[in-house]
Fold:
Amino acid sequence: MTTTEDELRDEARAWYEANWDPQLRTGEWFRRMMEARWAYPGWPEQWWGRGLPTPLAKVVLEERRRVGALGPPSGIGPSLLSHMLFAHGEESQTRRYLWAIAVEGLVTCQMLSEPDAGSDLAGARTRAERDGDEWVITGSKIWTSNADVVDFGMLLARSNWDVPKHAGLTFFLIKRDQPGIEVRPLRQMTGDARFNQVFFDEARVADEDVLGAVGGGWAVNRTFLAHEKNSFNPAAHEGGPFGRVPLDKPVGEVVEDERRRLSANASGRGVGRLLGDLV
Structure:
């Protein structure tokens, strides 16, 4: 892989100028970037990345923006789950989930906090009981953003009650749209519902979707927490869309949709500042 800034800039510029086509379907564009290792250049080379440090990864972002190309999906899948998979995932599991969040539009959320545990994540009481090659999940999680629209959740649950609390946790990647999972919005005074409470009533998760070792959930969660703060930093993302992406839509139209969304968000922040000045 190229390492100097000038070489990297030339290579990235040449690739984007040769490959950016607004008429491509969005899913095809995501696939092209991923296979060429331009989607997430900071990811390890083993996992469709280039192992670039942040300053050089920004060079790639600059060249992508220069041609007006859409970035890859953003959000906690690429910025958080990816690091958890790098550190704790089985090879086949890591390959499957990285491709899904980067190319296939799979969207996730965290399912960590519980109603009666406060900030003590290790005090989780959501129960995970093994049943053959599956786990049965019962309990509740709270303050989960986007739990009503995601494909799966990053879930911390208690699998062993006979050991110290940090040692009895296991981390799961659980499908959200299934019997036994109910998502209820938490309404704010404004009427908005940006957070949810999730109820698990014998929901199921496959053994292959345990992340890390059984009983090793706290180690996985520590990786999550180590990268969580940086996930709110715009520099941690690749400039692409957050949330659900219409993969069959021409990518140029998605770019225009993103511009309108960002413009509306900027206008909303301006109104918010104006109201703040008035009160």
